Prior knowledge:
Largest sheet: 8 strands, mixed, barrel
CATH architecture of the domain at 92-208: Beta Barrel
CATH superfamily of the domain at 92-208: L,D-transpeptidase catalytic domain-like
Structural class: alpha+beta
Strand content: 15-25%
Helix content: 25-40%
CATH class of the domain at 92-208: Mainly Beta
CATH topology of the domain at 92-208: L,D-transpeptidase catalytic domain-like
Shape: rod-shaped
Oligomer: single chain
Amino acid sequence: MSDELTSELTAELHELAATGETPPSLSGAEIRGRAVRRRRHRRTAAAVVGASAAAALALVLALNLGGGDTDRHPSPAASPTGTPTTPATPDASVDLFRRVVTVAGRELPLSSGSPLTPTRAGRMTVTAKVSMKLVPAEELRFEGYDMKLPWFIELRASDGKTNYIAGLTYDEKAPGYYNTTSGWIGLRESDAEWLYGQLKEGSVVDIEGTAPTPTPVSTPTATSPTDTAAEGAGTPTARRS
């Protein structure tokens, strides 16, 4: 008899003795057979439990590797980390001090606002384009008549204020040399037409700096009577008859 069967028989006998029951009238062979059947039952139960655990593990692995029902339960999308901003590099830059507009590597001379009506600096966006715009006289600070400005490009700042770029047809000598507008940006007509084709609605324009202070024009000083007499000291005078 093996040690395992002996241990099982001993355990059963002790159990019967502890409960005070009378040992069953079984032969040694029947007792051994009963012990063998119990051992088989235990092995079968252990095998079933092991198979169930293996099947569960295989199912988990299949779900993880194959995606399972992740299509029905997608992971939440990452939330945005910030608000959209305008491009760091503008499509055009306006330098009020140098009196130039820089676009695509080209510099166009400009005339900005006069000292009484300075051009506002800041970032602006192109909101509209018109090949010819009738601008009221009060907006141009002219008296008596409106004026048509060609290649009109409207600009708008983030606070809603507007400005514009257009051809300065009434004074084409001003761009690059002096400021004569009411605050808008004037270009030579040919340059305004080229810029009109470069910028689109939504283009970003940076206006930087301030216009240079105009140099005061010197005025001649008044001549005193004494100086006038001195200047005529060498001039011959008419002789009396």
